[in-house]
Amino acid sequence: MKNKWVRMGMAIVLGVGLMLPVQGVVRADAASEASNGALTWLSYQQDATSGYAFDGLVDSFEDFWGPNNPKQIVYTYDQAVASIAFIVKGERARAEKVLNKMRDIQDPSGYWLNSYWYNNGYGEEIRKHVGPVVWMAMAAMAYEKQYNDTRYRPMALKALDWSLQYQQANGGIAGGWSAWANSDEPWSSTEHNIDIYRVLQYFASVESSKTAVYTSAANGVKSFLDTYVWDESAKRFKGGWKNDTNLIDPKIPLDVNPWAVLALGSTGTRNYGASLAYVENASGTPGTLANPRYKQTLTYNDAGQTLTGYDFDWTDEVLPAYDDNGNQIGHTGADVWFEGSAFMSLAYYLQGNTAKADTINMEIIKKQGTSGASLGGIPYSLKGTSNSYWVMAQQNCVSSTGWLILSLHRFNPFTSQYLTGGSNPGDTTPPTAPANLAATGKTGTTASLSWSASTDNTGVTGYRVYRGGAEVAAVTGTSATISGLTAATAYTFTVKAMDAAGNLSAASNAVTVTTDPADNGGGEHVTPDFTAGGTKLSSTEVSLYITPVIPALYVDVHYKINGGPQLNHRMSLASGTWRHTVSGLGGGSSVEYWFTYEKSGPQFDSAHYTYIH
User: Fold this and answer.
1) Residue 135: other Cβ atoms inside 10 A
2) Nearest to 609 by CA among 521, 498, 512, 506
3) Which residue from 123, 375, 389, 573 lies 20 to 30 Å from 235 (Cα-Cα)?
4) Pick from 593, 590, 588: which is nearest to 609 by CA?
5) Confidence class of residue 470 from pLDDT cuts 50, 70 and 90?
6) Tell me: the pLDDT tens digits for 62-98?
7) Which of 95, 264, 246 is nearest to 194 (CA)?
């Protein structure tokens, strides 16, 4: 059977096969259409906040109060999911709109409230929970790793520092603070601890000032997960730990299991991957806490067609549900939680079960909106039951829609990596720091550097060169020439190694290079291999030349006028000297130039030189 995707009055027939994305690019099939549709809906929800206090954030729900009656609320967790989904879709500007606004509203101490009314800025859920706060740090990590841009790192570090105040003696991170009780939360959620583990590891690897503290904290979190909330007999995680009573939380929400696989891998200290089998095979009839059931097949339209997905919690009994204060909050019952179903799909793909992952995604897509304001959106839940914590909305929402994008593109937000299937989440061990950084040459506008290679547990893929705190070059070898410098100026450089997972090493030793004074007129440069320089022809022209000691088969000249774009030309040979005329100069114009030339077979690059007209 084929699904239909209706967009702007045009029906586009979708195939049922899901194809493997390569670096986030999905081929033109059902997965691609569903992903593009989800982006359309997320973009619409972001545009809905335009002109309001929280302009740039993404409205969490479509018509939450009812048809044409939106609940104007933005959840902090949703903003993290939306920004990561925008990054995966290549929508950098939209991701930055979210991250910029969240940076603007971050409390100086590092937290965000769980949610905000975006039409007036007032907090709707006056809680400061570690999980949503850490997810914003995770979003900053995704941006940094995908774009090699550290602009949101200070925001992430403040969020992590705020969260670590809640670390307990057993290593777990407690929940945060609640205005409703005006006190700290007395529980350490398994979910929140899974959230923070890889984020702590990443920023420990790239921020040397935090390495010791974050590494120690991450080790404590891992010990808590393995020792306190892992159920070895059932091979799955419990919901958390009650710090006020020192008792395990008996509830077993679905999400802690696929999220743990994504964050910790299928194997490790425990057999984390077995938790997916627990979820899959739990078959209580009816499902109860003692005899759970998560997988449900339910009707999803008036025609009686069915879809299969996973519920938030363990029960499908239709019973009244109560909060911790004894207040009834709807009814329990069989449901499909679409966000959680996407978690399961991505975790199965990590294990190498592509067919299972694709099947789950196709089931989710059955409920994707096909027209109007609902176009591309995914509901939070199918039936709107209580999950023993809250009543799940049935409206299209950011979390389910954003997670569909992540699942379709095989992007693991816990490590900010595209998965290849059948592997543990990404390597988190950074390479060793490059050693013996030294200057090997300089001109008025360039500095040449070299260093000793780093080592890594899986392999170094390249190096980043920094001038002060700014990245100025990315290379794969152990040398680099930095151009565009100012003559007679001191510059300090460091280098970091990078591996395939995006882990950065600590910085190398620093080296300071003072560039040469500027060349004036047609200064000539004599080397063992060639003589080169510039001859002024007129008030607007200079002839750049090079005379190789060993005749060359070709010479290319590269130059920049007054720091502008690089221009490249094949030079003309006459009487053993290669020449090229540069025009359009004025008095005092600076020409940075260098050569690529053939020397007895191999190709060589010269140093950079500067000509002042």
Assistant:
1) 27
2) 521
3) 389
4) 593
5) confident
6) 976 666 667 789 999 999 999 999 999 999 999 999 9
7) 264
For every residue of 419-438, DSSP letters joined together read --SSSPSPP-PPPPPPEEEE
Tell me the HSE value of 555 on the side-chain side, using a 13 A CA sphere: 26
Between helix 153-164 and helix 92-105 the angle, nearest 10°, is 50
Residue owning tokens 């909050």: 329
Instruction: With CA atoms as reference, report the closest residue to 425 among 416, 435, 434, 437.
Output: 416
Side chain identity, residue 255 = D
- Do the Cβ atoms of 473 and 400 come closer than 8 Å? no
DSSP strands (E only) in 411-489 = 411-412, 417-418, 435-442, 447-452, 460-467, 470-475, 479-482
Q: Quote the tokens at residue 209.
A: 């000032």
Q: What one-character DSSP code corresponds to residue 517?
A: P
Element (H, E) at 536: strand 530-536
Phi first, then psi, for residue 156 (nearest 5°) are: -65, -40
How far, in Å, CA of 175 to CA of 193, rounded?
Answer: 9
List pLDDT tens digits, range 299-330: 999 999 999 999 999 888 888 888 767 788 88
| Nearest residue to 94 (alpha-carbon basis) of 51, 135, 45, 163 | 45
Q: Is 163 exposed, middle or buried (0-12, 13-18, 19+ CB in 10 A)?
A: buried
Tens-digit pLDDT profile for residues 372-396: 889 999 999 999 999 878 899 999 9
Superfamily per CATH, domain 435-514: Immunoglobulins (2.60.40.10)
Fill in the DSSP letter of residue 515: P
**Six token digits for residue 249:** 């939380």
In the block, residue with structure tokens 């040398």 = 479
Q: How far is CA 211 from the centre of its chain?
A: 20
Residue 283: helix, strand or coil by DSSP?
A: strand
| CATH number 2.60.40.10 is the correct assignment for the domain at 525-612 | yes
Other C-beta atoms within 10 Å of 263: how many?
24
- CB distance 151 to 141 below 8 Å: no
Question: Domain ranges in the chain?
Answer: 435-514, 525-612
Nearest-angstrom CA–CA distance, 183 and 177: 6
